[in-house]
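Input (structure):
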């Protein structure tokens, strides 16, 4: 059974936001922008969690939990 997409999505978002530093990197209007962008990146990735008969769930979850993967996504956020 695949994991809940909410938990791993939240971790991916937090890993992306951590790249900006706490709390200064995520405060104010720029912080709101970065939060929205992290959501914009996390939702499409979580769509890859599906039926284990057809999807390599362990690879998707591994990516979503990876700070290195989050760092690559962060590069697209200004």
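Output (sequence):
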């Amino acid at each position: 059974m695949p994991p809940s997409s909410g938990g791993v999505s939240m971790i991916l978002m937090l890993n992306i936001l951590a790249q900006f530093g706490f709390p200064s990197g995520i405060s104010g209007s720029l912080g709101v922008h970065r939060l929205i962008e992290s959501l914009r990146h996390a939702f499409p990735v979580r769509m890859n969690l599906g039926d284990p008969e057809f999807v390599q769930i362990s690879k998707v979850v591994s990516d979503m939990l990876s700070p290195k993967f989050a760092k690559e996504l962060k590069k697209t956020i200004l």
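Notes: The chain has one domain: 5-74. The two ends are 36 Å apart (CA to CA).
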